[in-house]
Design brief:
Oligomer: homodimer
Helix content of chain A: 40-55%
Strand content of chain A: 15-25%
Radius of gyration of chain A: 19 Å
Largest sheet of chain A: 10 strands, mixed
């Protein structure tokens, strides 16, 4: 079965690369510099377990999804509309589409835009692009997928490629858990341009993160979402175990790129406003990141 | 009567200069570069009304306050303890001490440290140091002083020097009004390094500033302080009328200097915590400015 990866960033390259390495025909759809490097040298996968050049197809055109039975949508939340418009005309009628994105509403948005089922997936992986066609993997790689008629097939497919998959009937809750954790770290790391270890112990940061988490949990509860696990404990664990990590939002801001903040703290603020649930801490963080994005756009045009 | 100005920053230089220009013997106490320039060329006063080199005394030593009947304490809130320790041994027993500082508790702190009465003053002036011995005045210059047996004398002294003074029995309320307005602007301008006009209209900023103001008013109320006027209206007016202004906190951060943020949003947060009044928006702003100060200290040692 042909597999297409829409969005050849660090997440798309990791899962596309793992599937290609297991023998599946995979096409990565991404920007010219990446596509060119992958066509020339394959995808350099620099993982915790191995370092290999993995050969696979690559294209800059969304039409390359033609013939794919499985499509992994891995674009940034800010590109979801564009991706839907690009994929729509070329999707096979029986293709299975997975949204492997940050944020909590990308699968819904894709589904509404394309008029077909899209399965939301919670992605737990730490990766980054070290350069065109060069993927660095720092840890994990497991997925949580909602139940569907394709559940068994997906579990087997990914398991065969070394990717653990768990089927959960509370993907919405797990997406919110990840969202709230991202809300606690991403903006602070972005605004200060500091790695987690340089701010989690600083004066005042713990109560700020607690406020951010409480607001997120209140909004999720207002939406009827049941967030699993102890989020505050998870936040503390990440702060201790990933001291050198800069958030993706921090990386975007440093590169003058538009971040996903509208789909992180911004999502909590918008949903809170609809539900009349106050989100002052998330609002300050969201607003400042947007101001810094606007400032960067003036300094360094994209 | 000899007048001493403790802290030859932009506020101290303005009032010291105005009094010297009116014929009073004034000594400015400040850092070596300023003192040297003032001794050599006088104080260059670049005001809205005139541009003059005003001759006056200058010293780097707190002992220069000896013989002064009036002492204007114009140091930053972060230097209040040092100033008290420096002035203490040299103050004349009958000298009148005015605290002409930002924040709401400097007069109290000076009073406690020096064991004598210190009058709190609300200072409304827009000034900056354009270089050593070079003061730029952008607007206003009026003072609000609490009632004392010296009220008439102070009003006459300053009026004769072109400085309007109002005596108020609610200086605490006026200091809180100024504090809350500073809380709304200073941190946002500092964190984004943007002038007021570049952020007040941006998405999300108005609700953030409203949260900051509401929290400040709630804490003031909890302390039994009656804040005069419509603070939100004042905030809107400043946003519209000073589009090119960077906050003093923004200037401090840009220069790698310690800011007064602990005495602005930080004060609201600390007092709120004592009173069990939530201050999430002020806390995020305070915490981020502290993180940026710490970061700047690593990059550019003071």
């Amino acid at each position: 079965m042909k597999i297409a990866v829409m969005g050849a960033g660090a997440v798309g390259c990791y899962y596309g690369g793992m599937l290609a390495r297991a023998g599946h025909p995979v096409v990565l759809i991404g920007r010219p510099a990446h596509v060119e490097a992958v066509r020339r040298d394959g995808l350099l996968m620099d993982t915790q377990a191995f370092r290999e050049h993995v050969p696979l197809q690559a294209s800059t055109e969304a039409s390359a999804i033609r013939g794919a039975g499985l499509v992994l949508c891995c674009v940034k939340s800010t590109d979801t509309e564009n991706a839907a418009a690009g994929m729509g005309p070329h999707l096979e009628p029986d293709a299975l589409v997975l949204s492997m994105q940050n944020g909590v509403d990308n699968a819904e948005r894709l589904q509404a835009l394309m008029g077909r089922e899209v399965l939301p997936v919670v992605v737990y992986v730490a990766t980054e692009m070290a350069g065109p066609g060069h993927l660095k993997h720092h840890g994990r790689g497991d997925l949580v997928i909602g139940p569907s008629t394709a559940s068994d097939e997906l579990v087997q497919l990914f398991a065969g490629a070394g990717v653990p998959v768990r089927i959960s009937d509370n993907v919405a809750g797990e997406l919110w858990a990840k969202l709230i954790i991202n809300c606690a770290f991403n903006a602070l790391s972005a605004i200060t341009q500091l790695p987690y270890g340089r701010f989690v112990q600083a004066a005042g940061v713990e109560p700020v993160m607690r406020d951010v988490v409480q607001e997120g949990l209140a909004v999720a509860q207002g939406l009827g979402v049941s967030v699993p696990g102890d989020i505050w404990q998870a936040v503390q664990h990440i702060g201790q175990s990933m001291p050198g990590q800069y958030s993706s939002t921090a990386q975007d801001l440093a590169r003058g790129k538009r971040s996903e903040i509208d789909h992180l703290n911004g999502h909590v603020v918008r949903r809170g406003a609809l539900l009349d649930i106050p989100t002052p801490a998330n609002r300050v963080l969201h607003t400042i990141v947007k101001l810094l994005e606007g400032r960067a756009a003036l300094v360094a045009p994209a």
